[in-house]
Write a structure and sequence with these properties.
Blueprint lengths: L1 E2 L2 E8 L2 E6 L4 H26 L17 H9 L2 H14 L5 H25 L4 H34 L5 H6 L9 H9 L17 H31 L9 H38 L16 H7 L2 H17 L4 H24 L5 H7 L1 H14 L5 H33 L1
Antiparallel strand pairs: 1-2, 2-3
GO molecular function, one term: diacylglycerol O-acyltransferase activity
Pathway: Glycerolipid metabolism; triacylglycerol biosynthesis; Lipid metabolism
Membrane topology: Multi-pass membrane protein
């Protein structure tokens, strides 16, 4: 008998009638929400009583920000590299240079594009945040340049020989494949994608009201990120000890204290960039493919998380690293290792160069995902329909991984500054 969601099932076990009641746990879930709100409210009040309001008028811009002008000029000059890549492709499609020469020129351009900002940052006395922004943009341009060169190389092969190189290009048909135009390159460099195509799905119009609402939300959550950093994360890391040099209990206490504001900052960052900023950019450009992420928060394995949380990078790695490795006879396991290695190098560049230290914390953090993938995949296969893998993912995501990296890099940067003095 079932009544209003409560099911009473009669069963005869050994001559006795048993009644099984399917109970709802919604009340316990509500209790967890209330406890979460109460705990976080107490932490907010405690922080304000202890430190006061730490946000100052010069948080976003002050006199010291003027010393970062070389980084701004470097960022503004990065479009010269895509223009150089476009010139190389024009010469290659007109058969004025060989395919080998075009590949060599693309390798030179992509290498110079990533080395140039590294040298500017290392030579200038700039802020860590400014260096991080420049390296982040430089890595995006590098990924786009690689995709532009790789895709056009495959296009030339398909046009001249009709040989199938890439599934997406082959599906387009040889007759529809054309040399790149300056307009298609400019659109690609501005579009919220890392994989080059001659054309993209487009929407019919720009939703102005929706766009304004997203911009307002973006500004609000950007300010919230700054508030979390200044009000909660900075005081914790400034008053902490190096996690590898202090006592174990002290390190554990600091990591746990930092984990809560860190996960809030990460979620705000994800919402700001992947949901708001990329959709704002897509709406302005009428870009039709809005799959920037999937439900990574439900990931039962680390592998599933990496396949869902950053779809532009995932598609780039699959298309320009993983599939080319497989087509050249490399095993699946080695192809996965190479994919994570490329990702680890880019993460290390984005963090180590602005911090001016080479400790490989970011590199190791990415490469250690491989044994975690094996572990969580094993648990998923052994304990089917469980969330053990999801709990392990959240543990490393919230508690162990990112807070530990923040502490390690902060103290290494402070040690470097003290030594230079």
């Amino acid at each position: 008998m079932c009544d209003k969601g409560v099911c009473l099932c009669d069963g005869n076990l050994g001559g006795e009638t048993k009644h099984f009641v399917m109970q709802s746990h919604a009340g316990l879930f509500n209790l967890c929400i209330v406890v979460l709100v109460a705990v976080n409210s107490r932490l907010i009040i405690e922080n304000l009583m202890k430190y006061g309001l730490l946000i100052r008028s010069g948080f976003w811009f002050n006199a010291t920000s003027l010393r970062d002008w070389p980084l701004l000029m470097c960022c503004l000059s990065l479009p010269a590299f895509p223009l150089g890549a476009f010139a190389v492709e024009k010469l290659a499609f007109r058969n004025l240079i060989t395919d080998a020469a075009a590949t060599s020129l693309h390798i030179f351009l992509t290498t110079a594009e990533i080395v140039y900002p590294v040298l500017v940052i290392l030579m200038c006395d700039s802020a860590v945040v400014s260096g991080f922004v420049l390296m982040f943009i430089a890595c995006i341009v590098w990924l786009k340049l690689v995709s532009f060169a790789h895709t056009n190389h495959d296009t030339r092969k398909l046009i001249t020989s009709g040989k199938k190189v890439d599934d997406e290009l082959s599906a387009a048909g040889v007759d529809n494949l054309q040399p790149p135009t300056l307009g298609s390159l400019i659109y690609f460099m501005m579009a919220p994608t890392l994989c080059y195509q001659p054309s993209y799905p487009r929407t019919t119009h720009i939703r102005k009201g929706w766009l304004i609402r997203q911009i307002i939300l973006y500004l609000i959550f950007t300010g919230l990120q700054g508030f979390i950093i200044e009000q909660y994360i900075n005081p914790i890391v400034v008053n902490s000890q190096h996690p590898l040099k202090g006592g174990l209990l002290n390190a554990v206490e600091t990591v746990l204290k930092l984990s809560l504001p860190n996960v809030y900052l990460w979620l705000c960052m994800f919402y700001c960039f992947f949901h708001l900023w990329l959709n704002i950019l897509a709406e302005i450009l009428r870009f039709g493919d809005r799959e920037f992420y999937k439900d990574w928060w439900n990931a039962k394995t680390i592998d599933e998380y990496w396949r869902k949380w950053n779809m532009p990078v995932h598609k780039w790695i699959v298309r320009h690293v993983y599939f080319p490795c497989m087509r050249n006879g490399i095993s699946k396991e080695v192809a996965v290792f190479i994919s994570f290695f490329v990702s680890a190098v880019l993460h290390e560049l984005c963090v180590a160069v602005p911090c001016r230290i080479l400790k490989f914390w970011a590199f190791l953090g990415i490469m250690l995902q491989i044994p975690l993938i094996i572990l969580t995949s094993y648990l998923k296969n052994k304990f089917r329909d469980t969330m053990v893998g999801n709990m392990i993912f959240w543990f490393f995501f919230c508690i162990y991984g990112q807070p530990m990296c923040v502490l390690l890099y902060y103290h290494d940067v402070m040690n470097r500054i003290e030594k230079t003095k």
